[in-house]
Amino acid sequence: MQTGRPSRTAMSSARARAVHQVADSPPVFADPLAVRIIGGVADDDPRPAGVPAMPAEVRLFMALRHRVAEDALWAAARTRQVVVLGAGLDTFAYRNRNPALRVFEVDLPATQAWKRERLAEAGIGVPDSVVFCPVDFAEQTAEEGLAAAGFDRHAPAFFLLLGVAPYLTRDALLATARFVARLPAPAELVFDYNQPAESLPPHRQATRAAQAEAMAKAGEPWRSFFTPADIAAELADAGFDSVADVGWHDCLARYGLDPSLPDLFGGRIVHARATGEERS
Asked: Which of 19, 124, 215, 238 is 20 to 30 A from 47 (CA-CA)?
């Protein structure tokens, strides 16, 4: 994103979640605030010029990553804190049904200020359980920002990093993974990632190249790619005790969706767990 301005991809992702609520029946990921926070689903589209229209299958993947993540979150019984990294217009904190669960929203100051304006305009209240954590990544790390915001390293935590990893460098993503894995309390991390074009079937490589080129021209290029074997090895090295990695067809089967839907995106979703034992 451009410094000092809210991310265009944050709005595009939010719009995809909103359109999913009204265009895909029934939605695989139900978000009653998705339409409100963007001001309604209209014909206008926040995509920059040159970025191709979002296919329905890509929109569905974006919904699936949230469904997978939130299902895993609610299954993590000991979790006392949720950290939404690169929160954008994510609405989990405002749909959270457990008032004892603290939700830290980490994002760039400009994007966070913009989100707070959107919340106010939409009439969406901010629960006491929400902690805004603006972080200028040129000046401090997410770890430093969380510490300043009151994050408890010794309490079980769940981290969401959705739609963000491809825009991070490999080093930045793995540094975040190491931070989560080496916390002294149990911690879990869910994120999605893109596979390198050369690992995709030949008929999908041209589409991937066009997507990557369009995002680069829009000023928000994809910076990191992983194969499933690569990400498994990196997360094990970071200190995670278990890693579950699911792809498009895994998700279609899990949620009873049409198995013939084509995988246009090539994205995958990872759920990594660390026990926190013998860590400091």
From this structure: 124
Reply yes or no on whether the pLDDT at 94 is more than 50.
yes
Torsion over CA: 120, 167, 147, 232 (sign): positive
What are the residue boundaries of the structural domains of the chain, listed by start? Answer: 8-40+56-274
**What is the value of pTM for the model shown?**
0.91
Full strand arrangement of the beta sheet holding 267-274: 130-134, 102-107, 81-85, 157-161, 187-194, 267-274, 242-246
Domain 8-40+56-274 CATH class label = alpha beta
